Amino acid sequence: MEQPSQKRYTNQELKEKLNGRLASNNLKESFEHAIEGIIYALSSERNLRIHFFVGFVILLITLFLPIDKNNYIWIFFAVFFVIISELINTLIEKILDLFVPEYHPIVKVIKDISSGVVLWAALFSVVVGIAIIGNYLFNWNVLIAKVVGFVFVTAFPLIYLILGVRKWKKKR
């Protein structure tokens, strides 16, 4: 089997070598490629579709609430944070699948961690939603968000950590 070339290319040489097949200096084409990537991810990833839908519903609800600018920014950040996390998770999974198509325990760990990032982003978004939207819709005190946030940040992970360590030790 022939080994790949060890020659190092400059960015300009790579652009010339690729001749625009993978990269584009055209702004319109760059946006088209980005949109194609998002469409692909949406069409292939169920969880991303769920996050987009929930984010859309949340942002739609906030249109009818008298939310101040600062809180609105937090809501937007929470929604976008989950979607960005899911897109990065998809990216990591696709790269791993490309280079390691068969099962490998380290690949599983990387994918699990990547999914954990999405879970953490979703938990953050729930706390933001409870603190802001809960206040406007149900007149919830911010204390509820603090308690939920505390549970998510401490108790919830600790329980799963304890259970996970026990499960992991049994496997070894």
| Count of distinct structural domains | 1
| CATH topology annotation | Helix Hairpins
So what's the CATH class?
A: Mainly Alpha
The largest pleated sheet is described as: none
| Beta-strand residue fraction | under 5%
Shape: flat
CATH architectural grouping:
Orthogonal Bundle
Fraction of residues in helices? over 70%
Secondary structure: number of strands: 0
| SSE string, helices as H and strands as E | HHHHHH
Number of helices: 6
Estimated radius of gyration: 21 Å
Instruction: Measure the end-to-end span.
Output: 37 Å
The stretches of 5 or more residues where confidence is low (pLDDT under 50) are: none
Helix/strand/pairing class, anyone? mainly alpha
Averaged pLDDT: 87
Binding site for a divalent metal cation: 45, 93
Pfam families: DAGK_prokar (PF01219)
Organism: Thermosipho japonicus
Subcellular location: Cell membrane
